[in-house]
Every structure is written in structure tokens, then in C-alpha cells.
């Protein structure tokens, strides 16, 4: 298998319900890839291509404010 | 320039303990050619997923996946052969800059709440003392996944542990090694059972559920599908999982 090309890796579709996000930063601490940060008291993702889609941030969010396309509420792949 | 994270050579350390099983690497599994996932690169980082055969076992899977140099997910899962009722050995060591997500368990092949001999001989005797020693580590908590809580043993050690102070990592590594040594003790004494007995039918039914739960729900499926595509991810998961 050849090395993956950064441009070819799917960008994760990450969204935050700003009405729910309190900017507590638990997702930032939990993300193993260190690609989440808090900006203006809201969670944002940098380097979407690096997101593992492991769902850890979703599970750690006390407000259930984080959504990742293709993952269910438990942060696992949605059944088709 | 950012300093590269130095990861623990976890699978190498544990695989050395498996030498007495005389594992022999295989290159196809369930009819699938798996040579392309034995060793490969993700964004220049080395990854591997290897499958071995050994006496009394269906397979030993050893995988190590490095994601952008930021996190390494190391897994060893040993699946018993169909004539043996010993537990699976399961260990997961997901190391990032500051934390390790960890699982160590002997995953029971029969329901230890129904079969009290199983509980005593395959779980309590080999693991009770170890569990009392390791379950006090800060950061351990039960799995968030209901299917993990349903099928794993009461002796599962899991949670997210801070790497500092270093004694945390040393203790986790000792835990993985001790659980593996306990499992090897069971493997040495394992005797074949009649696969057509009512008991082994129960064992097979539970194992079928274990496989189903893992293959349908493993949170590792997300990252693998994203980075490898569905075909290679599916083959890799089939190799890795029980």
C-alpha cells in the first residue's frame, strides 16, 4: 500500500451546535490528534484531514454539541 | 520544529512473550489475501497488521497503526481454536502525546455468570489478584459501549491514563504483560473439547455474538475506513477483531 496523499484523504465533516457548545474544552483535551481548539468560546476543528473520526470528542462532550458526518450519537459509524 | 512523539514499542514487547506459542505468520485469512496490510505506510508512518497461527488457536492478530505521528493504536487479539473454550486475549494500547487509552482483558468464551466453573478457573483464579493490583489506577472507567460491557469480563482494565508520571505507563505495561502471562497459563493447560457437545454449542453461540458485536460496532472502523478505504479497512478489521 502506498503512502496516502494528504489531498486525497477525505476531509471530515465536523459541526458544532453553537447553541449547545459552552466552550468547556473537554473535547480539546480528549482529542488524540490535537486538532480541536476553542475559538471565541466555541469548539472548532483544524486540519480536518487528520481527524480519525474516532468519535472521542462526541462522547466526551457533556452537551452533545458535536456532530461528525457518518457517525452516530455514540461516535461510531452509522448503520446504513 | 515540533519534536516527534516517542511511542512505546508495545506490540514488540508483548509479542516477545508469545514466542513460546511458536506463532507462524499466515498470509491469507477467511479467503482474503492480507499481504498488503502486513506492512504499509500512512502519510509516511509505518503501520502493520499481521496474523499468526499457533497450536490451539484460530489466530493471533498483532497490529500497529501510526496516524500522522500523533497517535499509535497497538492491538493484540488472540482468538482460541474452535475445540477450546479458553478466553480470548485482548489488549489495546492507543498512545498519543499525553494519554494512553488502554484495554486489557481475557474475554470469556462462556457466560461466567451462568458457568461458575468458568468464572473460577478462567477468570477468578488467574486474574483476581492482578485486578486488585491494577484496577486502582487513576483514569480507569468502564467502557462507554454497552456491547463491551456485555461481553467482556468483570476483570477488564480499561480507561484513559495520563502518561505522566512515568510510573503510570510502567504500570499499564506491567498490567498488559501480566494479563498476557495469565492467558498463556490458561493456553498451556487448555484441553480440546467435543465441538458437538451442548457446552461447546453455547461457547460457539457466544463467540458468534462477540464477532458480530465487534464487526458491527468497533469504533476503530471509522478511522480505518477514512484512511484506508472500505475494502482495506474491512479486511484489516476482519484480521484484527475476534
> What is the CATH top level name of chain A?
Alpha Beta
Strand order of the main beta sheet of chain A, please?
1-4
Helix proportion range of chain A: 10-25%
Structural class of chain B: alpha+beta
User: Strand count, sense and closure of the main sheet of chain A?
Assistant: 2 strands, antiparallel
Quickly give the CATH architecture of chain A.
2-Layer Sandwich
How many domains is the backbone of chain A divided into? 1
- Supply the CATH architecture of chain B: 3-Layer(aba) Sandwich
Helical element count of chain B? 8
Largest interface (CB < 8 Å): A-B, 26 and 32 residues
**pLDDT < 50 stretches of chain B:** none
User: What is the overall number of helices of chain A?
Assistant: 2
End-to-end C-alpha gap of chain A:
28 Å
By CATH, the topology of chain B is oxygen-dependent coproporphyrinogen oxidase
Q: How confident overall, as mean pLDDT of chain A?
A: 85
Low-confidence stretches of chain A: none
What structural class do the secondary elements of chain A suggest? alpha+beta
Q: Roughly what is the average pLDDT of chain B, rounded to an integer?
A: 93
Dominant shape of chain B = globular
> Topology as H/E string of chain B?
HEEEHEEEEEEHHEHHHH
Q: Based on CA inertia axes, which overall geometry of chain A fits?
A: globular
What does this protein structure show overall?
- The complex is a heterodimer of chains A (80) and B (242).
- Chain A has one domain: Alpha-Beta Plaits (2-Layer Sandwich), CATH 3.30.70.20.
- Chain A contains 2 helices and 4 strands.
- Chain A has helices at residues 26-30, 56-60, and strands at 14-16, 36-39, 42-45, 66-68.
- Chain B starts with 9 loop residues before the first helix and ends with a helix.
- Chain B is α+β, with helices and mostly antiparallel strands and 242 residues long.
- In chain B, strand 6 (57-67) and strand 7 form a beta hairpin.
- In chain B, helix 3 packs antiparallel against helix 5 and helix 7 crosses helix 8.
- The mean pLDDT of chain B is 93.
- Chain B is built from 8 helices and 10 strands.
- The chains are: A alpha+beta (80), B alpha+beta (242).
Amino acid at each position: 500500500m502506498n503512502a496516502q496523499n494528504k489531498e486525497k484523504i477525505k476531509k471530515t465533516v465536523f459541526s458544532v451546535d453553537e447553541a449547545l457548545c459552552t466552550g468547556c474544552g473537554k473535547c480539546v483535551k480528549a482529542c488524540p490528534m490535537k486538532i480541536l481548539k476553542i475559538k471565541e468560546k466555541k469548539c472548532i476543528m483544524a486540519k480536518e484531514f487528520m481527524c480519525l473520526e474516532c468519535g472521542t470528542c462526541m462522547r466526551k462532550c457533556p452537551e452533545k454539541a458535536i456532530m461528525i458526518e457518518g457517525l452516530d450519537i455514540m461516535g461510531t459509524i452509522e448503520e446504513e | 520544529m515540533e519534536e516527534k512523539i516517542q511511542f512505546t514499542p508495545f506490540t514488540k514487547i508483548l509479542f516477545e512473550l508469545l514466542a513460546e506459542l511458536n506463532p507462524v505468520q499466515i498470509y491469507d485469512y477467511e479467503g482474503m489475501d492480507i499481504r498488503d496490510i502486513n506492512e504499509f505506510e500512512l502519510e509516511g508512518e509505518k503501520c502493520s497488521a499481521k496474523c499468526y497461527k499457533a497450536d490451539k488457536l484460530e489466530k493471533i492478530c498483532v497490529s500497529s497503526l501510526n496516524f500522522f505521528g500523533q497517535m499509535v493504536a497497538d492491538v493484540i487479539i488472540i482468538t482460541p481454536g474452535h475445540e477450546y473454550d479458553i478466553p480470548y486475549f485482548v489488549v489495546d494500547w492507543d498512545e498519543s502525546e499525553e494519554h494512553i487509552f488502554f484495554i486489557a482483558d481475557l474475554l470469556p468464551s462462556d457466560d461466567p455468570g451462568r458457568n461458575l466453573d468458568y468464572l473460577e478457573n478462567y477468570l477468578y483464579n488467574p486474574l483476581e489478584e492482578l485486578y486488585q493490583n491494577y484496577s486502582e489506577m487513576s483514569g480507569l472507567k468502564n467502557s462507554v459501549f454497552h456491547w463491551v460491557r456485555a461481553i467482556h469480563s468483570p476483570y477488564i482494565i480499561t480507561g484513559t491514563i495520563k502518561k505522566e508520571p512515568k510510573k503510570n505507563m510502567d504500570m499499564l505495561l506491567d498490567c498488559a504483560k501480566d494479563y498476557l502471562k495469565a492467558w498463556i497459563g490458561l493456553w498451556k493447560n487448555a484441553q480440546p473439547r467435543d465441538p458437538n457437545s451442548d457446552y461447546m454449542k453455547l461457547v460457539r453461540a457466544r463467540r458468534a455474538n462477540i464477532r458480530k458485536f465487534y464487526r458491527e460496532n468497533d469504533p476503530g472502523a471509522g478511522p480505518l475506513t477514512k484512511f484506508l478505504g472500505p475494502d482495506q479497512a474491512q479486511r484489516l478489521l476482519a484480521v484484527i477483531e475476534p
